[in-house]
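BUG-233 | component: ligand-complex export | severity: low

The export step for zinc ion jobs runs without errors, but we want the raw record kept on the ticket for reference. Input record follows.
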Amino acid sequence: MLGAYTLCIITIGAGKVLISIDIFSSSMGANSSTIKVFTKRQGVEQLKLLEEILNHNQQFVEEKKYEEFETTKFPNKKMVILTCMDTRLVELLPKALNVRNGDVKIIKNAGALVTHPFGSIMRSILIAVYQLQAKEVFVIGHHDCGMSGMKADAVVSSMKERGITDDALDTMTYSGIAADDWLRGFENVEESVSHSVHMVKKHPLMPIDVPVHGLVIHPGTGKLDLVVDGYEG
Ligand SMILES: [Zn+2]
């Protein structure tokens, strides 16, 4: 058995993560390796997760499990979905809509919100439409969303507990970003979806022939409720 040992140091913010990759070849010629991750700055739970992911990934690639997912960057169903990053929707939403790998572009953020007409969400939607063959837009919020009723004050308090100083928050204010607006959630998911649909539909750079639909999904059952039918203008 041949042995080799590689060390990498990756700097993430102020903390250093030390990764050791022990690579060896078996007498049969097949390559294999064990990935171990160490750090002084981060919690044990995070380390285990990274190690678990890297080891799984190595096996995934080696066993060519990616083959069943092979497709192109162009969506078969010619659509782009904006939805929430909620954990319950990771697999449920595609299954509930009957979309598979290769069918759609999916954009996610907290709350399925379009909060700024020239922010990254709107930019992604425009790129999907102009460059990636999406012909319809679906904004899909969900019941029991973490952004529902979220108060900026509570988020700011959590930040302060984690060591964010008043100076940092003042810098944000002086830069023209009001924490109350920037961190605010919504009171009603249907209204929020309607607002985001309106932002997309009325965007000056959005072609008028692109239907923009608004829906709300139940995070337990996957049931969809129609809020805005984009075919009705
Ligand atoms: Zn949500």
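Assignee comment: Attached the raw record above. The chain has two domains: 2-68, 79-148+185-232.
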